[in-house]
Structures are given as C-alpha cells and as structure tokens.
Amino acid sequence: MDITTADGWGAAIYVWIIPMVVGDAFFPPIPSEMLVITGGALAAEGRVNLWLVALLAAAGSWVGDILVFQLFKRRLTHVLDRWAWGRKIHQGIHRAIAKAGRSSTYGAIIGARFIPGGRLAASAAAGIAEVSSRGFSLCAGLGGLLWAAWQTGLGYFAGSTTKLPFWASSLIGVGAGLLIGIVVGVIVTRRRGDRSPVDEPGEPPHL
C-alpha cells in the first residue's frame, strides 16, 4: 500500500477507520482525525464513498466511547494497571480529565470530542459519575455522527475547493481542525478554571 498516492489507499481506508477511531478513544495521539479527514479528501476525488467513511467513523467513535465509559462505570480500570502500557493509558486518561474538566453533562458528552483529549475525558468522567448507560449511549452516538460529519467535511471541503492532491487537502483539513479545536479548548478551559480532583471512587488519589 503506497499511502502517497490516492490509488494506494483504495478500499484499505475502510478497514482502518474503525480500529483507529476506537483506539483514539483510549489514546488520543492516535491520528484518527487525520485518517477520517483523509477519507473526506479522497471522497472529493471520487476515490471513496463519503457517506461510508462518515458512517464508519461515527461507528468507531461510538464503540470507543462506550468502551471507555463502561471501563470507568464498572470500576474496571484496575485491569489496565496490570500492565505497564495499561498504567500509561490510565494515567493519560486522568491527565485528559484534569485538562479538559470532568463535566459529565450530556452536552459535554456530545461536544467535548471536538477539543483535544475531550472525547476521552468526557467518556471517563461520565463513567465515574455513573451517567445512565442509555443516556450516554444516545449522546455518544449523536456526538459521533456530528464529529464524523465535521471531520469528513473538512477533508471534502479542502479537497473540492483547493483541487490540490488528496494528501495536501488532508493536511489543510487537519490544520484547520486542530486550530479550531485548540481555540475552543482554551476557551472552555478558561471558563472552567481549576476543577476538583479527578480521582476515581475507591482508588488512591494518584497513580
């Protein structure tokens, strides 16, 4: 697979979207946004189906959110602590909550995914707060659809307006999305200020 050419991606992008977006729910540095935006840019060239890319991204987002939510709701985070990589993920989750805040409102579940680390923080915080599974599932589904539409839209818009190669359109979309996310994140963080500790019930204050 030659990722530098549009032909090199082909149907392979469909295979990667769900595992990448699910993985991003636990480890935000996974470049799922770039992959989904690239899908939008490829769709602008007629290489892939825009709607299928968006639906797969939304499905991956929902599954990943549910897994993180249930992990914290059922107090299963101790399972992560059995391995070094799991402890790093656990610590990363706490850092994400500390940075993005621990709001567990339905609005936060839907909207927090648009700021860096917000998706992970909102899902974990909702689990800690024992938000109803039904309510979380519906909000995560809606949020996933909106997020997928936004990401694919960025790639498609960049590709259809600039007429640049798909990889250049993808980079433009990623840059625009990251800039907007950072700005929104700064605004939200300043409004929230310093929040209460992010410790889970029944666990030591710090890992």
Summarize the structure in words.
The chain has 207 residues and is an all-alpha fold. Helix content is 71%, strand content 0%. It is built from 9 helices and no strands. The longest helix is centred in the C-terminal third of the chain and has 30 residues, at 133-162.
Give a quick set of tags describing it.
9 helices; elongated; mainly alpha; 207 residues
TL;DR?
The chain has helices at residues 6-9, 12-26, 32-44, 50-73, 84-100, 106-111, 118-128, 133-162, 166-192.
What integer value in Å does the Rg equal?
Answer: 17 Å
Shape: elongated
Compute the average pLDDT.
Answer: 77
Helical proportion? over 70%
- Helix run count: 9
Helix and strand string, N-terminal first? HHHHHHHHH
Main sheet characteristics: none
Q: Approximately what portion of the residues adopt beta-strand conformation?
A: under 5%
Q: Find the count of extended strands (DSSP E, 2+ residues).
A: 0
User: Which regions are unreliable across 5 or more consecutive residues at pLDDT < 50?
Assistant: 193-199
Please give the alpha-carbon distance between the first and last residues: 41 Å
Pairing-aware structural class of the strands and helices? Answer: mainly alpha
